[in-house]
C-alpha cells in the first residue's frame, strides 16, 4: 500500500478533523455540559497500562511470554491467531484474560477490524518472506487503516541496521520490512536484543557442555550481546505500553566475550571449560557458502547455514548493540548468564 503523508496543521473543521470546540462562557467558570463533550486527555485515553495491545504471534515462544507480561502490567490483550489454531497456548491465553480473535492473516479488511481500538500492534511472528515481509505488511496496512498509533515488528535480534545486505538472510527480510514500516504513517519501534541467551544451552553451538569447550571463530575478545527470551518479552511488553519509545530500543541482559562464557561455564558447572578456536572468520564464511550449497533448505526458517550467518555477524562485532536501553524500565531484572548456563545439565 502507498501511504500519503498526513498534512500537518488543523483541518478547517478543527484539530485533526475533530469539530472545533465551542467557546466556553468564561475561562474561569467553564460550562460543565460543554466540557463533558470534550473529554480531557485523562478521560479520553485510558492510562497506558490499561491500553489495548493487539498481538500477532501470541501462540509462539516469545509472543506467549509478551502476552503474559502485558496482562501482568494490566493491559488488555487481543491475540490474533490463525483460524483453527488448537495449540494449548490459545486456551491458556483465554484463561488468563486475553481476548483471542481468529483472523485470516491474508485479509487486510479482517485484520483492520481486529486492530480497531489498539494503542499498539505488536508482532512476534516467525517465518520467512511470506511472514516477515508479506504478512507483516498486511498487518501494518491494517494497523494504519484502523488508526493504531504504534507498531512493534518481529525483529528481536542483533542490530541488523549495521549489517551489510546479504550477510544474513533472515535479517535482510527484517531490514526490508523496516523500510516499509519507515514509510508508513505510524510510530514504529524495533526491539533489538542480541542472541536469545537460552540458545546457549540448546541450539547455538557455542558453549559445548559435553566436551567442556567454548567454540568460537575469529578473536577471543569480541563482546557479544545476549538476552533471555523472558527478559526480551518483559521489555517488549513495557515498550508496547510506552507511547514515547524511539525507533529502536537496544537491550542486552549480558555482554560477554568467549573468555567470559568460558569463565562463567566453568564457575557454574564446577568443571573447567577450555576454548576451541574453529578458525578465522574467513573460514566460517567459506563454511556458510559450502553448507548453503549442499543443504540449502530454502523453506526452513533456521537452517544450519543461517545459524552460522548469525554467529559470523556476531563475531565480526558489526551488529554490537550500543547504546543500551536496559535502564529504561527499572522494574525489569536482567537474567545473568550464570543463571541460564546453570540450567544446562
Ligand atoms: N534473537 C534470537 O536469538 C532469536 C531466536 C529465536 C527467535 N527470534 C525471533 O523472535 C521472534 C519470535 O520467534 P519465536 O521463537 O517465538 O517463534 P515461534 O515460537 O515459532 O512462534 C511463531 C509465531 O508466529 C505465528 N505464525 C507463524 N507463521 C504464521 C502465519 N503464516 N500466519 C500467522 N501466524 C503465523 C505462529 O502461529 P501458529 O501458532 O499459528 O503457528 C506463532 O504464534 C521472531 O522474530 C524470531 O526470529 C530471535
TrEMBL record:
SUPFAM superfamilies: NAD(P)-binding Rossmann-fold domains. The keyword NADP applies. It comes from the Bacteria. It holds the Pfam family NmrA. InterPro entries: NAD(P)-bd_dom_sf, NmrA-like, NmrA/Isoflavone_reductase-like. GO terms for molecular function: oxidoreductase activity. Residues 50-272 form the NmrA-like domain. Keywords: NADP, Oxidoreductase. Residues 1-44 are annotated as: Disordered. This is NmrA family protein. It comes from Hymenobacter nivis.
